[in-house]
Amino acid sequence: MTHAQTLQLLEERYDHYDRPAFIHNDPISIPHRFTQRADVEISALFAALLAWGRRPTIISKVTELLRRMDDAPHQFVTQHQDEDLKKLLGFCHRTFCDTDLLYFVHWLRWYYAEHDTLEDAFMHGNTQRERLENFHTLFFSLPDAPQRTRKHVATPARGSACKRVNMYLRWLVRPDDRGVDFGLWTRLPAAELICPIDVHVERQARQLGLLTRPVVDWRAAEELTENLRRFDAADPVKYDFALFGLGVEEKR
Hints:
Pfam families: DUF2400. The protein has ten helices and two strands. By secondary structure, it is mainly α.
């Protein structure tokens, strides 16, 4: 397939999927339930970092989690009393359980005591690799951080492609006049985002010759994104919609 043909295909599928109809069956539907910035940030963080498995299950489990927080995530993490934390006990999605959830809430309370937005936590570094590594360090900087919880926040320092964190940043950073991604954070350019790679994206990217690295790691995420920049240097991760959508279509 020529460069022009690939571009046409990506643009067509991007145009098809980057629409409000996409929201309903995707975890991004969770933060779309909220209007206040901090509620969007927190609900999106849980929706993104718990996004493994079937999409209906992810949406159901994050809905349950937020219900335990009285559907007011920012108020809960910043104003809860010890007694309120009992509502979180027993929560579990895959290997993310209440021990991990309690630390997330603890860290968020600590963080929001000093900052108005989670955007600040992703601004430490000159490259996306540095920013994600520094976010991971910051997130686990509290002395009581459980070792078991570290696997739930990926970092390029361990070679991870950081699919869920990159998806979170796409949601919050990417300007989108179609109403899917939020574009709430404006200090990090969309041009510097790294494309999330799930199984659908990987399969389609390989078929289109956009990904050649044999393992899906951080270098693979960089390779894919660099190739997508050939089609749109200012907004390469918009093609996440196209590659994901093509993968879903092929699976049907």
